[in-house]
Amino acid sequence: MQAELTAKQQRFLEYLRKRIQSDGKAPSLRQAAGDLGISHAAVAQALKVLEEKGYVRREGRYSRTLHLLNRVREATAAQRWREVPIIGRVTAGLPMYAQQEWDGSLVVDGDLFPGRDLFALKIRGASMQDAGILDQDLVICEPRQYARNGEIVVALIEGEEATVKRFFHNEDHIELRPENPDFSPMRYGFEQVLVQGKVIGVQRRLSDAPPADRS
Questions:
Q1: Residue 112: what pLDDT?
Q2: In angstroms, how far is CA 119 from the centroid of its own chain?
Q3: Bridge partners, residue 163, by sequence
Q4: Which of 93, 103, 135, 163 would suit a FRET pair with 44, their CA atoms being 20 to 30 Å apart?
């Protein structure tokens, strides 16, 4: 059972519910403090109380992924979203969730994409168009350092260039195969390719310019 809320706590919960329904994600501490005319510390304390009383659940201490809970402490049906970072540049040696160059974030349905430490990359070029991945699309990925033949992966080439291609492990080389007959498969030595993640979804950017062949 959820503990009773004070009038002030109830107003704060209603504020969170409205912002999430409106924006698809929880407000930042700065945004909530500005909207409510209170300090960042007061917002953090209010969140802590709601969490202790069973009305919200955070995925991590510093995460903005916030779930509103129903009376049996399950996430409400309308509140399944989660925020996924868009990686601007893949840096060798860092796990995907620790990448330092972010290019915003993407809100996805947490029921469809339940994995941990998901990340997104913006596609540039038409080399994967026959797999339904177009120029300017965002691909949603789960971190992986291995791949099975035929999977579409994010691969880092020689520690510098990230590419999205279909992966094949051959006896003496790695093949990264495009999904467009205008592009040729790429072949590399085993030491040249680092798998960084598996593509598990695509979000179309309908408002962007038409696809341009740049890869």
A1: 81
A2: 4
A3: 155
A4: 103
Give percent helix, percent strand, percent coil of the chain, each to the nearest 5. Answer: 20, 30, 45
Per-residue pLDDT, 34: 92
- With a CB cutoff of 8 Å and minimum separation 6, the contacts of 5 are 13, 50, 53, 55
Choice among 165, 184, 198, 215 that is catalytic: 165
Tokens for 5, please give them. 């809320």
Annotate 73-122 with DSSP letters as a single string: S-B-TT--EEEEEEESS--TTS-GGG-S-EEEEEEEETTT---SS-EEEE
Catalytic pick among 8, 25, 39, 127: 127
* CB environment 125-142: b (16+ within 10 A), e (fewer): bbbbbebebbbbbbbbbb
Question: What's the gap between Cα 101 and its chain centre?
Answer: 14
d(CA 15, CA 26): 10
Q: What values do phi and psi take at 140, rounded to 5?
A: -100, 130
Residue 127 a catalytic site member: yes
**Residue ranges in the chain whose pLDDT is less than 70:** 1-2, 24, 59-65, 70-81, 91-101, 205-215
Active site residue 184: no
The first and second tokens of residue 39, run together, are 């300090």
What does the alpha-carbon distance between residue 119 and residue 163 come to, in Å, rounded to a whole number?
A: 14
pLDDT of residue 210: 36
